[in-house]
Design brief:
Blueprint lengths: L7 E7 L5 E7 L2 H11 L8 E7 L14 E2 L5 E9 L2 H10 L11 H12 L7 H9 L4 E9 L6 E6 L4 E4 L4 E4 L11 E4 L4 E5 L4 E5 L8 E4 L15 H7 L1 H9 L3 E2 L2 E2 L8 H6 L2 E6 L1 H18 L3 E5 H4 L10 E7 L5 H12 L3 E6 L5 H5 L2 E4 L12 H21 L4 H12 L1 H8 L3 H11 L4 E6 L3 H16 L2 E6 L16 E5 L7 H16 L3 E7 L11 E5 L8 H18 L19
Parallel strand pairs: 16-17, 16-18, 18-19, 19-20, 21-22, 21-23, 23-24, 24-25
Antiparallel strand pairs: 1-2, 1-3, 4-5, 5-6, 6-7, 7-11, 8-9, 8-10, 10-13, 11-12, 14-15
Helix pairs in contact: 3-4, 6-12, 6-14, 8-12, 8-16, 12-13, 14-18, 15-18, 16-18
The structure holds 5-amino-5-deoxy-1-O-phosphono-D-mannitol (M6R).
GO molecular function: carbohydrate derivative binding; glutamine-fructose-6-phosphate transaminase (isomerizing) activity
GO biological process, one term: UDP-N-acetylglucosamine metabolic process
EC number: 2.6.1.16
């Protein structure tokens, strides 16, 4: 689970004889391993345990703030994901009762509240009733796991607006924020409903709502490959995932074009519903947002309806005009991003139809959406998105084509032709992976850099944004993506001798004007001393005189070019990161894979 948070890590184990032992450490999981070696593994022996890797929200990443948190009497251990919004009054209440809190987290209150509920009052001596009483007092978003020293054979777990999956083994059970936690042990999983609780024993579990009434949940089988969640010979998950991009795109496209028609996933909007749509909103965050920008270009071009795009965290705060003829396309690799989930909820409350593009089976965003189109990129562990991004672009294009088909804005043979071009992409990405070595050489020749600019026009602009984001995330270097035409309106003032500027050049076989304009932009920045890293199609000779370095990509149509042009930028960011001494590119500082807080 470390890819979800690596500010600190900890584990608590019930020894079965009335005690809970714990080890925790700030920093990555390796620090916890060292701590466990110090205290001796035997001191953490037991059959019931809870562990946590933290992404700090309240309180700095320190040993004291690491989870699990223990109650004042040493009997209760908890781990928490999310934010307990009313922690301040609860903390004040505990302090007034003479309990001193040892961390700055919002989470610790849950441990003390549970111990108090178990030690006194109506719920005394009743672990389950005590847990339910605490859960009913908490506001905000939380996945909580409770363990009590006097009940070493059980864990009580609950979720509200943050993920929780139960893995059902033989004589053993697992709880995780996602299935990667336990696919090594079982493929049988159960996704809990919102506001529900699971009481877990080694060979059985019981589901209930926060009021104690019976709850249900849908079991599912995990189809992800275990090998896909391991590094497979690469030195990082991210490098492995970059190399998996041909299959990520291929698998995402598979099965979506039959007998001359675009086919959606099982949970889909009907052709009639799609026909009725007269505007689209795209909501997403980070790389998913960049893929959404490409959805806008494609849908407006193919379907001729207006598409607006919004970073999900802004969407519901600006009162967008939505109605039942609006399609909201919610794009999320994890399917758990809180900002995107809230945008989905807002869209639904306004009567819009929501179609999720998601990589994670059974996650919350698809569950709450009217329809879903799954990307089949497999588990993405590297925090910086690579294969999921490419798969999202492919899936967004499927959505665009399905809309064009339903609304009749493209003839079937035109749709078939576009789909053919899309299906040719995986082989081209495969070919392009060979650019890794030359791109790494460029990164080495660049030397120390403080900032880097990325320029693109048309569909090259989202690629520029994605390239800049990868560099920021991995190398911690300031980077910005601009539409190349915007340069002269301000950013050109940043150009100075030796400043590296990446330029994504559209195909000269596409819109001629677009190509010639960007060639002029490269000349302008070269004239001001910048070093240019030019990404251009094979055979595009017009750019050669202005490129300090030239990276060639295979020919494709203009709209498909982002699926290729992004790949060298991923290698570039990863290698610059290594040159800067950031070896662990899978876990960039301050980030987490799934951001389940708003
Ligand atoms: O799981 P999601 O696709 O909803 O995540 C959205 C962003 O948090 C994610 O794309 C993030 O920007 C990545 N770190 C980018 O590399």
């Amino acid at each position: 689970m470390e890819y979800r948070g690596y500010d600190s890590a900890g584990i608590a184990v019930a020894d079965g004889q009335g005690a809970i032992n714990m080890a925790k450490r700030a920093g990555k999981l390796a620090n916890l391993e060292e701590r466990i070696a110090e205290v001796g593994e035997n001191s953490l022996a037991g059959c019931t345990a809870i562990g946590h890797t933290r992404w700090a929200t309240h309180g700095r990443p320190t040993d004291a703030n690491a989870h699990p948190h223990m109650s004042y009497d040493g009997k209760v251990a908890i781990v928490h994901n999310g934010i307990i919004e009313n922690f301040a009054p609860l903390r004040a209440e505990l302090e007034a009762a003479g309990i001193s809190l040892v961390s700055d987290t919002d989470s610790e209150v849950a441990a003390h509240l549970l111990a108090r509920a178990y030690n006194e009052g109506e719920t005394a001596e009743d672990f389950q009733a005590s847990a339910l009483s605490v859960l009913n007092r908490l506001e905000g978003a939380f996945t909580l796991l409770f363990m009590h020293a006097d009940h070493p054979d059980m864990i009580i777990a609950a979720r509200r607006s943050t993920p929780l999956i139960l893995g059902v083994g033989e004589g053993e059970m697992f709880l995780g924020s996602d299935v990667a936690a336990f696919i090594e042990f079982t493929r049988n999983a159960v996704e809990l409903e919102q506001d529900s609780v699971v009481i877990v024993h080694a060979d059985e579990y019981q589901l209930m709502h926060f009021d104690g009434s019976k709850a249900s949940a849908t079991p599912f089988t995990i189809d992800w490959d275990l090998a896909a969640a391991e590094k497979g010979g690469f030195d990082s998950f991210m490098m492995k995932e970059i190399h998996e991009q041909p299959s990520a795109v291929r698998d995402t496209l598979a099965g979506h074009f039959h007998d001359g028609r675009v086919v959606l996933d099982e949970q889909h909007l009907t052709e009639e519903e799609l026909k009725y749509i007269d505007q689209v909103f795209v909501v997403a965050c980070g790389s998913a947002y960049h893929s959404g920008l490409l959805a806008k270009y494609a849908i407006e071009h193919w379907v001729r309806i207006p598409v607006q795009i919004e970073v999900a965290s802004e969407f519901r705060y600006r009162d967008p005009v939505l109605d039942e003829r609006t399609l909201v396309l919610a794009i999320s690799q994890s399917g758990e991003t809180a900002d995107t989930l809230e945008a989905v909820r807002h869209a639904k409350s306004q009567g819009a139809k929501v179609l999720a593009v998601c990589n994670t089976n059974g996650s919350q965003i698809p569950r709450e959406s009217d329809a879903v189109l799954y990307t089949h990129a497999g588990p993405e562990i590297g925090v910086a998105s690579t294969k999921a991004f490419l798969a999202q672009v492919a899936a967004n294009y499927i959505v665009g084509l399905a809309l064009a088909q339903a609304k009749g804005t493209k003839y079937p043979d035109e749709i078939a032709e576009i789909y053919d071009t899309l299906e040719a992409i995986p082989a081209k990405v495969e070919e392009l992976l060979a650019c890794e070595g030359p791109v790494n050489d460029i990164a080495k020749e660049l030397g120390a850099i403080r900032t880097m600019l990325f320029l693109g026009r048309g569909v090259g602009f989202p690629v520029a944004l994605e390239g800049a984001l990868k560099l920021k995330e991995l190398a911690y270097i300031h980077a910005e993506g601009f539409p190349a035409g915007e340069l002269k309106h301000g950013p050109i003032a940043l150009i100075e001798d030796d400043l590296p500027v990446v330029v994504i050049v559209p195909s000269p076989r596409g819109v001629k004007l677009l190509h010639s304009k960007i060639v002029s932009n490269i000349q302008e920045i070269r004239a001001r001393g910048a070093k240019t890293i030019v990404i251009a199609e094979e055979g595009d000779d017009a750019v050669v005189p202005y490129a300090t370095w030239l990276i060639r990509i295979p020919e494709t149509s203009t709209i498909m070019q982002p699926l290729l042009a992004t790949v060298p930028l991923q290698f570039l960011a990863a290698e610059i990161a290594r040159q800067c001494g950031n070896e662990d590119i899978d876990k960039p500082r301050n980030l987490a894979k799934s951001v389940t807080v708003e």
